[in-house]
Amino acid sequence: MYNSKISGLGMYVPENIVTNDDLSKIMETSDNWIIERTGIKERRHIKKGDGNTTAIMGVKAANIAM
Fold first, then answer.
1. Cβ 41 vs Cβ 16: under 8 Å
2. pLDDT by residue (tens digit) across 3-50?
3. What angle do CA 48, 54, 55 make, to 5 degrees?
4. In this structure, what are the phi and psi dihedrals at residue 19, rounded to the nearest 5 degrees?
5. Separation of CA 18 from chain center
6. Largest pairwise CA distance in the chain
7. Which residues pair with 17 in a beta bridge?
8. N or C: which end of the chain has fewer CB within 10 A?
9. Which residues contact 18 (CB under 8 A, 6 or more apart)?
10. CA distance 30 to 3
């Protein structure tokens, strides 16, 4: 049998935070409406051209885990 174990955890999220209030400026919605239906208060998005790809973010998370 294999003797594997998890020895570390890591996560990485982009620094660009988009709040519900930010979304309400570009679409017809409100902070309360989104929170009431989804529970989401903010989300993270990459900025175009910042160098973050899924692979880069995976490497950053792996380095944090180690």
1. no
2. 888 888 999 999 999 999 999 999 999 999 999 999 999 999 999 888
3. 120
4. -95, 170
5. 10
6. 56
7. 44
8. N
9. 42, 43, 44, 45
10. 50
Tokens of residue 23, six digits: 């979304």
Q: Are 55 and 2 in contact (CB under 8 A)?
A: no
Q: Return the residue matching tokens 């902070």.
A: 31
What pTM, to 2 d.p., does this model score?
A: 0.67
Quickly count: other Cβ atoms within 10 Å of residue 63's Cβ. Answer: 10
Angle (CA) 9-18-60 rounded to 5° is 25
For tokens 């989300």, name the residue.
Answer: 43
User: How far is the CA of 17 from the CAs of 3, 9, 23, 59, in angstroms?
Assistant: 40, 23, 11, 21
